Amino acid sequence: MLRELTGSVHSFDVSTGVDGPGTRFVAFLAGCPLRCQYCHSPDTWYRRSGTPTTPDQLLAQIRRYERFIKVAGGGVTISGGEPLQQPAFVRDVLRRCTELGLHTAVDTSGYLGDRADDDLLDVTDLVLLDIKSGDPGTYRSVTRTGRLAPTVRFAHRLADRGLPIWVRFVLVPGLTDAPENVEAVAAIAASVPTVQRVEVLPFHRLGAAKYAALGLDFPLATTEAPTPELIDRVRGQFRDHGLCVF
Hints:
Layout: E1 7-16, E2 23-29, E3 51-53, H1 55-64, H2 66-71, E4 75-79, H3 87-99, E5 103-108, H4 118-122, E6 126-130, H5 136-143, H6 149-160, E7 165-171, H7 179-190, E8 195-202, H8 208-213, H9 228-239
Parallel strand pairs: 2-4, 4-5, 5-6, 6-7, 7-8
Antiparallel strand pairs: 1-2, 1-3
């Protein structure tokens, strides 16, 4: 007997204007290969922290909101953790969402982009691509376990397929804010023709309580949020490359 496909789902939520266009059903999968210093969800690092879930079970939850999502011009976003750690599960869920006429999005660092086969991308309408940094050394410092090259490769593969991309960049004072690092991210984004917008996300410490609950040290416990002046400077660097910035 074939073993039923399951994914590890940490949680889900319904949000507006955060994880793609319109009102979204957002499924957060458990498991991520990166250990970003600013991660606000350390409770999603390991697949064992999620609940084994079949595509049918997740679709049952999605269908509870189907009409509302469609009326609100939204869809379904698979986030994490890192969803591409579970590509077969993501592919099956998004295929079923597509059959329901729901807009689909994947929120990913792109580090595991090679795991997304063509069938998965065929049922993906939008990729929210987290570019952690543009300088390889800074990228390694931010993620502690990752490399920049796979993300850049994945971005160009998406563009070759004509897939829309929203780039996300987390602005952390003293970590990702160096002008040359921002300039490198902007250059990457500008080189990818299907990037529709760049979202500059100011760092916050709202996840600190999760680290404490897990008995973990929060690496950026003393880092302050970026000032309005810093945010404006960074957004300006992206605009200087002709990018639409939020």
